[in-house]
Design a protein that fits this description.
The protein is of the alpha+beta class. Helix content is 24%, strand content 27%.
């Protein structure tokens, strides 16, 4: 019998004017492109994510500043493949337009861990002008600060 690892968290979309749906449309397309079925373990697939529908889809969602994309999943021994899952998740982050992401990891053998990504102030200044011109530039690892665990062997 394996060990259960549960992850859950959120990605906060980069805020934009109420009348602009550039970021919401962009992020929805990226999430929609995720695999529908489980791919290589550790998997990162569309069914793990919930994206609130926006006004551009004739549905009003309730958010004050920006949409929050939530996600979660249950895995067998994910801590043994944590670095691989992080690579997949960070690849997804490089495609989305966001300003904060957080992942909670609950395992049977280790204390709960939290990983957090925040975009840098410099990137925030750049993206404001680019959203206005509908020029969505990918985020790179240099554009965010990471805080959390990358290797469970270090515990």
């Amino acid at each position: 019998m394996g060990r259960i690892t549960t992850i859950y968290g959120y990605i906060k979309e980069y805020p934009q004017r109420r009348d602009s749906h550039t970021v919401a449309r962009h992020n929805q397309k990226i999430i929609d492109r995720l695999p529908i079925e489980a791919n290589d373990y550790p998997y990162l697939m569309k069914s793990m994510f919930h994206v609130p529908k926006g006004r551009f889809e004739n549905i009003i969602y309730h958010s004050y500043w920006s949409r929050v994309i939530t996600f979660g999943g249950s895995f067998k021994g994910l801590e043994d493949h944590w670095e691989e899952w992080l690579v997949k998740f960070e690849k997804l982050l490089t495609q989305l337009i966001w300003y904060e992401a957080k992942v909670h990891i609950e395992t049977e053998w280790y204390p709960e861990q939290v990983c957090e990504w925040r975009i840098s102030h410099e990137y925030s200044n750049k993206i404001n002008s680019r959203i206005s011109s509908h020029e969505l530039t990918p985020i790179t690892k240099n554009d965010w600060k990471f805080q959390g665990l990358r290797d469970f062997d270090l515990l």
